[in-house]
Amino acid sequence: MTLMVMVLCSIASGLSFGHEPKAVMATLCFFRFWLGFGIGGDYPLSATIMSEYANKKTRGAFVSAVFAMQGFGIMAGGIFAIIISSAFEAKFPSPAYADDALGSTIPQADLVWRIILMAGAIPAAMTYYSRSKMPETARYTALVAKDAKQAASDMSKVLQVEIEPEQQKLEEISKEKSKAFGLFSKEFMSRHGLHLLGTTSTWFLLDIAFYSQNLFQKDIFSAIGWIPPAQSMNAIQEVFKIARAQTLIALCSTVPGYWFTVAFIDVIGRFAIQMMGFFFMTVFMFALAIPYNHWTHKENRIGFVIMYSLTFFFANFGPNATTFVVPAEIFPARFRSTCHGISAASGKLGAMVGAFGFLYLAQNPDKDKTDAGYPPGIGVRNSLIVLGVVNFLGILFTFLVPESKGKSLEEMSGENEDNENSNNDSRTVPIV
C-alpha cells in the first residue's frame, strides 16, 4: 500500500495542474504531502522487515545498507536531471536571464521538472512484484498475528530449512501479563520510555543540523565555481548546474559516508558510530562558525568546502544512518514499526526546523542586507554556532540509546526476559 501511494503520488506530482502558478504549486504540495505519507510508511517498514529477517551478527550492515541505497537514489536522480536538462537545452536553447528575463524560461521548461518528478515512480514500481511475493516476517506472524504455523511455513521457505511450529509455547507467551502492556502504557514507559526519547530526540537533533546545511549550498557551490551567478544562466541551465553540483556532493561525500557505516556498524557498534558522528559534526560546525570571517575570504573558500564536506561525511558515517537502524532493533515486535515511525516523524519535524527555521535565522541582522521578503536574523556565523550546540545535544541524548551490536532482537526488546525457559530452542518460531 505504501509503495502504491509513492508510485501514484510521484506520477501525480508531475501532473500538477492549475490556471495560475499558485494553483500549480498548491496541487504540487498536495501530491508531495501524500508522497511523503507513503515514504513515511516505507521508512519503518523497510527497516523492520530487514531487521527481522537478518541475523544478529550482520543485522546492522543489512539495515544500514537499506538506508544507504538512498545515496545511489540521490545520485540517480541527479544524473537523470542532468540528462533531461541537457536534452532540453540542446533542443530548445534560450538566452540568459541577464539578456532576456522573460525569455530565459522557455515554455518547454515546464516539462523538465514534471518529467524529473514523474521518473521517481519507475524504480518504485519495479519493486511491486517482488514486494507482493515477500512473506510477512515470522516475528509479526507469530508474536502479533499469533499464527505459529504460518510463521514456520514462511521461514521454512526463506531459510530453506524445516522449522516446526510450537503453537503451545506461543500461546503461553501471549497469555503472560508482562507481555500484554500497550504502547505508552506505564509498563512500556518504564521499559522503553527512555529508549524512545533517545531515538526521537537524536533523530530530531540530527535532522535540524543535516537539513539546515542546505542553507550554505548555494554559497559554497558559487564559491568554487560549480554554479555561476544566477543571472548568467537560463532556467534549464540552472537545473543542469545545480543537479551536477548535488550529484558531485553525493558521489564524493554522501555515498562514501553511508557505506563506511555499512562496513563498520557491526564492528564498532551503533553507539560508537553515532557518538563519533555527532562529535565531529560539532567540531566542524564550531570550526566553521568561530573563525567565520576567515572562511569568507575568497582564498579560504576551498577550506570551507572541505569542512562542509566532512560535516556531511560524518553525518552519514554517523547519526544519519544509525538513527534509522537502532529503532528497528530495540523495541518489542508489536511496537517495532510504530516506534520507528514515531522516531522518523520526529526527525522530519527537525528537518522542518532546519530547512525553514534556519532560513530565517541565518538572515543578516541588518534589515537592509536581508534577502527579499525575510526579516532580520542572527546571521550565518551565529546560526552555525547554534547548529554546533544542536550537534552537542545530540551527543548527550545518544547516551539514552542502548547498544544493540551482536544482540538478538528479543534480548534488546526484553521479550525473552520472562521466557528464558520457554525459548531455549533457537529453531522455535518466536525467536527465529
TrEMBL record:
<dbReference type="InterPro" id="IPR005828">
    <property type="entry name" value="MFS_sugar_transport-like"/>
</dbReference>
<feature type="transmembrane region" description="Helical">
    <location>
        <begin position="302"/>
        <end position="321"/>
    </location>
</feature>
<feature type="region of interest" description="Disordered">
    <location>
        <begin position="410"/>
        <end position="432"/>
    </location>
</feature>
<dbReference type="Pfam" id="PF00083">
    <property type="entry name" value="Sugar_tr"/>
</dbReference>
<keyword id="KW-0813">Transport</keyword>
<dbReference type="GO" id="GO:0005315">
    <property type="term" value="F:phosphate transmembrane transporter activity"/>
</dbReference>
<feature type="transmembrane region" description="Helical">
    <location>
        <begin position="111"/>
        <end position="129"/>
    </location>
</feature>
<feature type="domain" description="Major facilitator superfamily (MFS) profile">
    <location>
        <begin position="1"/>
        <end position="406"/>
    </location>
</feature>
<keyword id="KW-0812">Transmembrane</keyword>
<dbReference type="GO" id="GO:0016020">
    <property type="term" value="C:membrane"/>
</dbReference>
<feature type="transmembrane region" description="Helical">
    <location>
        <begin position="383"/>
        <end position="402"/>
    </location>
</feature>
<feature type="transmembrane region" description="Helical">
    <location>
        <begin position="271"/>
        <end position="290"/>
    </location>
</feature>
<dbReference type="GO" id="GO:0006817">
    <property type="term" value="P:phosphate ion transport"/>
</dbReference>
<keyword id="KW-0732">Signal</keyword>
<feature type="transmembrane region" description="Helical">
    <location>
        <begin position="24"/>
        <end position="45"/>
    </location>
</feature>
<comment type="similarity">
    <text>Belongs to the major facilitator superfamily. Phosphate:H(+) symporter (TC 2.A.1.9) family.</text>
</comment>
<dbReference type="GO" id="GO:0015293">
    <property type="term" value="F:symporter activity"/>
</dbReference>
<feature type="transmembrane region" description="Helical">
    <location>
        <begin position="341"/>
        <end position="362"/>
    </location>
</feature>
<feature type="transmembrane region" description="Helical">
    <location>
        <begin position="66"/>
        <end position="88"/>
    </location>
</feature>
<protein>
    <submittedName>
        <fullName>Phosphate transporter</fullName>
    </submittedName>
</protein>
<dbReference type="InterPro" id="IPR036259">
    <property type="entry name" value="MFS_trans_sf"/>
</dbReference>
<feature type="signal peptide">
    <location>
        <begin position="1"/>
        <end position="18"/>
    </location>
</feature>
<keyword id="KW-0769">Symport</keyword>
<feature type="transmembrane region" description="Helical">
    <location>
        <begin position="247"/>
        <end position="265"/>
    </location>
</feature>
<keyword id="KW-0472">Membrane</keyword>
<dbReference type="InterPro" id="IPR004738">
    <property type="entry name" value="Phos_permease"/>
</dbReference>
<dbReference type="InterPro" id="IPR020846">
    <property type="entry name" value="MFS_dom"/>
</dbReference>
<keyword id="KW-1133">Transmembrane helix</keyword>
<keyword id="KW-0592">Phosphate transport</keyword>
